[in-house]
Amino acid sequence: MMAIRELKVCLLGDTGVGKSSIVCRFVQDHFDHNISPTIGASFMTKTVPCGNELHKFLIWDTAGQERFHSLAPMYYRGSAAAVIVYDITKQDSFHTLKKWVKELKEHGPENIVMAIAGNKCDLSDIREVPMKDAKEYAESIGAIVVETSAKNAVNIEELFQGISQQIPPLDPHENSNNGAIKLGRQTSQTGRRCC
Amino acid sequence: MADNLPTEFDVVVVGTGLPESIIAAACARSGQRVLHVDSRNYYGGNWASFSFSGLLSWIKENQQKTDLSDECEDWRKLILEDEEAIPLSSKDKTIQHVEDFCFGDQDSAEGVEEAGALPKLPVFGAPAAQGETPGPGKESPAAEGIPLGSQPSPAAEGVEKENAAVESPGEEPQSCSEAARAAAGDGAGAAPGTGAAPSTAAGADSAPQPAKTDTAPSENAAQEPKKITYSQIVREGRRFNIDLVSKLLYSRGLLIDLLIKSNVSRYAEFKNATRVLAFREGKVEQVPCSRADVFNSRQLTMVEKRMLMKFLTFCLDYEQHPEEYQDHESSTFAEFLQTRKLTPSLQHFILHSIAMVAETESSTLEGLQATKKFLQCLGRYGNTPFLFPLYGQGEIPQCFCRLCAVFGGIYCLRHAVRCLVLDRASGRCKAIVDHFGQRISANYFIVEDSYLSESTCTNVCYRQISRAVLITDQSVLNTDSEQQVSILTVPPLEPGRAAVRAIELCSSTMTCMKDTYLVHLTCPSTKTAREDLEPVVQKLFSLNTEKETGNEELEKPRVLWAVYFNMRDSSGVEKSSYAGLPSNVYVCSGPDSALGNDCAVRQAETIFREMFPAEEFCPPPPNPEDIIYDEDEIEPEESGLNNSPETKPETSAEESSSEGGADVTKEE
């Protein structure tokens, strides 16, 4: 059986660029025009094969905390990758993308895989951000970049496949969870009770 | 602000400490519209944790006593005739007597000034400064892998290192501040010529070969701990998550129960505290607390092992044996222990390290209760009763805030509240006015104590907590494993003082850089934090860097950096002590001095129940399919994956997992 690796992925980008839609498309293969701002969902999961491993993405949504620039540092903890989303029809959202990258570098883990998604590419007739700009910027920060359409299911799978490929293979010598304890799960730890 | 904040809510919560965050989560979870604000630019208030540079900024902010702007009170115009305003405080006055020290600095004050001047994004600046400046090596000789360029180094490495360790008076401070500035990216423009000469002359890091600077000190790491310099601490500053409060989670305490029940636990990971330590006759020893520990202990005799096991077994169900302690109910626990067949060292272990109660004040029953609580928490997650959150205690409030946000709560940091608006007729608070002059109305208001003005708190009598945070170079008790999380109680060094609680964290807790330890000291204040805690620091650690003072000092861990401060303890204040607060305004206290978090959880639950007596407090989240998927297309089918033992338990634990459905759709 293939080993399952849990990979936390956090989503970044301005309100309304389609962060939740991208995840919805990826996880449920579903698109809703009137998606309500993510109520009640902490993270979504989807498992994809990658080489000899299965990558189980735990995709965290901002839960709206980005709206007034109040994302908590805990949001970034332990993320293997970040998907930073902008809207190709809104130049502003591309500008703020850089701020998100900066914040990610400040608070995020050092070796985090960065993927930039220029969403809403189905609306390329009202495009404001040239693909070339995004490519150049992504190159300058060592990020993957694709233009996506959550609505038409364009490049969504590819986006996450790209992330999967960038994740370094598990180092067998490295204890992946470093002895950290998750509460509320069935732990195999029996523990010795006094008396 | 790009987005407009709604102006009508059910509950407005001011302050993002632990109790406020739990209440916010509970309210949002029960369907209330919640606005949660904090005037600071970080979560947690006095429960926050900081990177090293973040802590330096915090220190600087709290050392500046000047109230910069006496607020213009424009908002008063917004108050109508049938209303009254209760102004809130614009300046946090809960932190006092902040003193920080960089050891190895002769003139510590100067070093602090330099380091404190760091901009908010030192971590960010570091790589930039190294990459962009023409001669980065000159400014930051300690920088990794950076050629030292034209700096000649006449002396041999080994000799120099000796010198640096033994005596570097006057020069190291410069080296510190230089490196700090360089690491902060601030040094990019600074004249490297002038700064470089003295800093490299300090010799600590000026190896003759490029790229050897960092590896050099590790060469004799076999014997001695790695020598970490201040500049390295600054450069690796983001590896630190330094808590303002020092607490642990009892593995069967209220906070753990709440985390699990509400499913907030999924947002955090924990480490077990690995050791309970005692300080007796000038030595640090490990306290055997579990059955296995007792039997494996080499320090206890066979007789002691039996005594201890017998006593602990009794404590686990002491209520069933009243005859054993009845006669001692009026005496202290310490006196009670003397009547039991226990050697002095066992009495010490039980009193100070297991029960952790005061020697002169705590009654027999308090001691027995505390001992029982300790024993009951053993074994749930490990060999000690305690857990510590990865990245620090400061994560926990943020986790509850996330739950609140997930259920629709709106978050605004850097959002100050000028006043509460009181409706004269009803006597109830009906709105707040924020720093934009925006009026936001709600039915209930939760305000953290530090936001209340002096006139509101004029009759309140606060206690204080003395805190110290040290960065040290080795553990107070070295064993084969470096990665230990230890709790140590130091009994009062003189009568009338309180015992000091020390928690030592290793780098795998993600709160400090490799090869360092983070030590938190806490006690209820009698004087300033430094006066209360420095005697203990001197007992446990070596503060000397200039001169070696005998072998004993050498064995002790060295303090590399330290900060002392007093924090207001607003726990246990009755609401009636606050003047003029309407009934629909609730006050949350800041952190208390206890080890656990029960006080905060209890307070949050009490306030929530007063507001919403009919609602459940933080119930488990509903089934994921109930919230997100109202489409019939996705049936939670069982795929092969879901049947695997690894994923099975988690599927139900996650709010929205669709691995089953999605995978099936994809594969078909």
Automatic annotation (TrEMBL), chain A:
GO cellular component labels: early endosome; early phagosome membrane; phagocytic cup; trans-Golgi network membrane
Q: Matching CDD domains, A to Z? A: Rab5_related
What SMART domains does the annotation carry? RAB, RAN, RAS, RHO
* Residue segments, region Disordered: 169-195
Extract one GO molecular function annotation from the record: GTPase activity
The record's comment on protein family reads: Belongs to the small GTPase superfamily. Rab family.
The record's InterPro entries line, in alphabetical order, gives: P-loop_NTPase (IPR027417), Small_GTP-bd (IPR005225), Small_GTPase (IPR001806)
Q: How does it sit in the membrane?
A: Lipid-anchor
Keyword annotations for this protein?
Cytoplasmic vesicle, Endosome, GTP-binding, Lipoprotein, Membrane, Nucleotide-binding, Prenylation
Q: Which organism does this sequence originate in?
A: Serinus canaria
Q: Under which name does UniProt file this protein?
A: RAB31, member RAS onco family
Question: Which classification does the entry list for the species?
Answer: Eukaryota, Metazoa, Chordata, Craniata, Vertebrata
Q: Name one GO biological process term.
A: cellular response to insulin stimulus
Where along the chain is composition biased (Polar residues)?
Answer: 175-195
Q: Where in the cell is it found?
A: Cytoplasmic vesicle, Phagosome membrane; Early endosome
UniProtKB/TrEMBL annotation, chain B:
Please provide, alphabetically and separated by semicolons, the GO molecular function terms listed in this UniProt record. GDP-dissociation inhibitor activity; GTPase activator activity
Query: Where does the chain cross the membrane?
Result: none
Stretches with biased composition (Acidic residues): 627-638
- Gene3D superfamilies assigned to the protein according to its UniProt record, in alphabetical order: FAD/NAD(P)-binding domain (3.50.50.60), Guanine Nucleotide Dissociation Inhibitor, domain 1 (1.10.405.10), Guanine Nucleotide Dissociation Inhibitor, domain 2 (3.30.519.10)
State where the protein is found: Cytoplasm, Cytosol
Bias (Low complexity) occurs at 193-207
Q: Name one GO cellular component term.
A: Rab-protein geranylgeranyltransferase complex
Keywords in UniProt for this one?
Cytoplasm, GTPase activation
| Short name of any one Pfam family annotated for the protein | RAE1_2_domI_C
Q: Where is this region: Disordered?
A: 124-224, 614-668
Annotated ranges, domain RAE1/2: 465-593
Q: Which domain of life is it from?
A: Eukaryota
Main location as per UniProt? cytoplasm
The entry assigns this protein to a family as follows: Belongs to the Rab GDI family.
The name on file for this protein is RAE1/2 domain-containing protein
